[in-house]
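Chapter review: from sequence to fold.
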Amino acid sequence: MQFDDLEQFKDWWLVNRPLNTPDIRSLTYVAETHGVVLYRQGCYQVEMFLVKPNSEIEPHIHPNVDSFEVYIGGDIDFMCNGQWFGQNMIGDSIRVYPNSWHGGKFGDRGGCFISVQKWLNGVEPKFVGDDWVDQKNTGSYKENRQT
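The token string follows.
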């Protein structure tokens, strides 16, 4: 098995769970999804997302982000590159590369997951939904949602 620095960061963060929430750009509220930055240091960031019941996040990519999406709770069917994963154990994770099309469907309990990220290409960490490409080419999760 090959390890890389993002996987090592994910494992370290899940064991230690340090909080380093920045004073600015730490909370996001967009349609069915609410997020908070739990940790930001250099190119690494951990965001936690709460998604309302019976909602969907459409397929998209984050071209400047390499990440692991880690299940925390709820009813989540996560899709990555056309393959569906029913995450149901705390700590289950899926690797999402910058070119991995991914999205999710959330059931009656909604869902909670953390996104353990390494930001690439000199882009500073921010709300991951602002580093967004979807099939409609909206440029942001915020613009993709209809309110």
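Two observations follow directly from the output. The helical segments are 5-16, 141-144. DSSP finds two helices and nine strands in the chain.
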